[in-house]
Structures are given as structure tokens and as C-alpha cells.
Design goal:
- The chain has helices spanning about 15-25, 40-55, 75-85, 85-90, 95-105, 135-140, 255-260, 290-295; strands at about 30, 110, 115-120, 145-150, 160-165, 175-180, 185, 195, 205-210, 215, 225-235, 240, 275-280.
- By secondary structure, it is an alpha+beta fold.
- It has one domain (about 30-295): q2cbj1_9rhob like domain (Jelly Rolls), CATH 2.60.120.620.
- Helix 7 links the parallel strand 12 and strand 13.
- The longest helix has 16 residues, at about 40-55.
């Protein structure tokens, strides 16, 4: 098994915003141990797991059942559609610790993207592991969008966590090529000379990284564990956002359908109460490191 250097834990810098922003600017990511650990993470995990169990994906001990289900396949949505309806899942993106972190980084009021993403990774599906990529290709809008990647269960490296290519946000936007796995595209990291970082992670640990930071999933090589994680995204209200970032992930459900059984209303259509700059999705050209640093491209 490949070995990795560990992340630098930035939890101790939460009270030192300038040093926190400086580390993010230098490394392209922040790792914050236990940032959102607690009842909110446990509730979301248990509700997602209950859907998996109801659909025969996992047993009562949370062990996977049957052959791997691949994201985007017809049977995938037997779990993913009801998952997208979970109030706890969408509410978790607004956890006070995540909002405080995003506000510290962005230094302005924060827009939480409503298009929240969950990943359920089976063992035995190495060929469908998310390849190295940059999120900006999928997000667009502003480059100053940040992803919070959070495991909802114990996530040692063999269960398939996330690897970060430290410092890769400074190389610019790279050309993409078709690849298997969620997202469907990857980037070539050969010759960049940058280190891949990864480590065991616990529920509620957070990787927070720039939209140009190259990252990839690790294969789930365990025999009896599902990896369940979430991706939430944050940007400043003053920055542009692409219209489809305001739609549910995969666009199969309407927001009305998602909100149907929610107990609370304050997070329903919250983005409509703000004056957003909505821009169309574009065909992207690679951006050089020089253009990245000067703000062009």
C-alpha cells in the first residue's frame, strides 16, 4: 500500500486568523481535526446508514452487502434520492464551526452552496475511485470557492479517504482528460514535484481546500467497511456563482421535493434572500500559474 506524509493540523490556528489564512495560501488546504465532531455528524451518518440498510446496501453492523454500487448508476439513486431529502445532511453544511472557518478565510459574508454532495464508497470498486482533479472545473463561478470534505465515519486510509497534493493550487488550472469515477475527468500530476498527503481521519475531521487544489480519493481496500463522507462548498456573497450550483446535486429532485418533510424552514431557499451574481457555465481553458497569481484567466 502506498504511504503518505500526514496533513498539518491547523486546529490550533483557529484563534489566529492571519496565520490560518497564510497557511491556506501556502499549502492550498487546511486540515482541522474534530472541527465538526458531535451530534450533528452522528445524526447525519446514522440517517444515511439507515437508508443504506433499508435498500440492502449494508447490514445492521454497517458492513456492505452485495456487489459495489457505483455512483450515477440507476441503483445508486435508490439511496441517493432519499439521502438528498435529509434535513440533517443539508443542515450540517451550515454548522457554526464550518461557517466560522469560511468567514475567517473569505473575510466577508459567506454563501453556502446549496448543492451538497455525499459520497458512499464500497470496497472492491478501485477502478471507480475519484481521480486527481481540481474542483473549479465542476464548480466554476469564482476561483475563491472552498470545499469542506468531512468523513461521517471512521476513515483510516485503507477505507478510502482523501489525498491532497499540497501546494498544487499554485500551478494554475490544468487541462483535463476523461477518467472513470465520480466527476468523469482527471488531471495529470506527473512532473509537478509536489507531495501527496493523506492520513487516517475521524468523524467530523475537516479538509478545507481551494478550488484549484488537486486532490483525489483513495480506494476503499477494506473488506467490510463503507466510506461515507460529505462535500460542502463555500464562497463570498460578493463573488459570482454558476446557476447550477444553486440546484440539487444531480438535478433529479426539485427543492420542493427535498423540503417536503423538513421540520424547519429557515434553511429553505436561503440563497434567494440575498442579491447574488449568477453567471453562466463556460467552457474553460487552462490557466497558467502566472495568470493565477496575477488574477487573470
Amino acid at each position: 500500500m502506498e504511504t503518505y506524509a500526514a496533513f498539518t493540523d491547523s486546529r490550533n490556528l483557529l484563534s489566529e486568523p492571519e496565520r490560518l489564512r497564510a497557511r491556506l495560501h501556502e499549502e492550498g488546504y487546511l486540515f482541522l481535526s474534530g472541527l465538526v465532531a458531535g451530534d450533528a455528524v452522528r445524526q447525519t451518518y446514522q440517517e444515511i446508514l439507515a437508508i443504506c440498510q433499508a435498500q440492502g446496501w449494508a447490514d445492521r453492523q454497517a458492513r456492505p452487502l452485495g456487489s459495489p454500487r457505483l455512483e450515477g448508476s440507476p441503483e445508486w439513486f435508490d439511496v441517493y434520492d432519499p439521502l438528498q431529502r435529509l434535513e440533517s445532511f443539508h443542515t450540517l453544511a451550515h454548522h457554526p464551526a464550518l461557517l466560522a472557518l469560511a468567514e475567517t478565510v473569505l473575510q466577508e459574508p459567506v454563501l453556502v452552496h446549496p448543492r451538497n454532495i455525499a459520497r458512499i464508497t464500497f470496497p472492491g470498486a478501485d477502478h471507480f475511485t475519484t481521480p486527481p482533479h481540481q474542483d473549479f472545473v465542476h464548480i466554476q463561478g469564482t476561483r475563491e470557492t472552498y470545499t469542506a470534505w468531512i468523513p461521517l465515519c471512521d476513515c483510516p486510509v485503507p477505507v478510502g479517504g482523501l489525498a491532497i497534493l499540497a501546494g498544487s493550487h499554485r500551478v494554475g488550472l490544468l487541462p483535463v482528460h476523461p477518467a472513470s469515477g465520480p466527476g468523469g475527468v482527471g488531471v495529470n500530476t506527473d512532473g509537478l514535484g509536489l507531495p501527496w498527503l493523506a492520513q487516517d481521519m475521524a468523524p467530523g475531521d475537516c479538509l478545507f481546500f481551494h478550488s484549484h487544489t488537486i486532490h483525489r480519493a483513495l480506494p476503499n481496500v477494506s473488506e467490510d467497511r463503507l466510506r461515507i463522507s460529505v462535500d460542502f462548498r463555500y464562497q463570498g456573497f460578493s463573488q459570482p456563482i454558476v446557476e447550477d450550483s444553486l440546484l440539487p446535486h444531480y438535478g433529479r429532485l426539485t427543492w420542493d421535493a427535498i423540503y417536503q418533510d423538513w421540520r424547519h424552514t429557515e434553511l429553505q431557499y436561503y440563497w434567494r434572500r440575498q442579491p447574488l451574481t449568477v453567471v453562466p457555465r463556460q467552457t474553460l481553458s487552462p490557466v497558467t500559474a502566472a495568470e493565477r497569481q496575477t488574477g487573470n484567466g
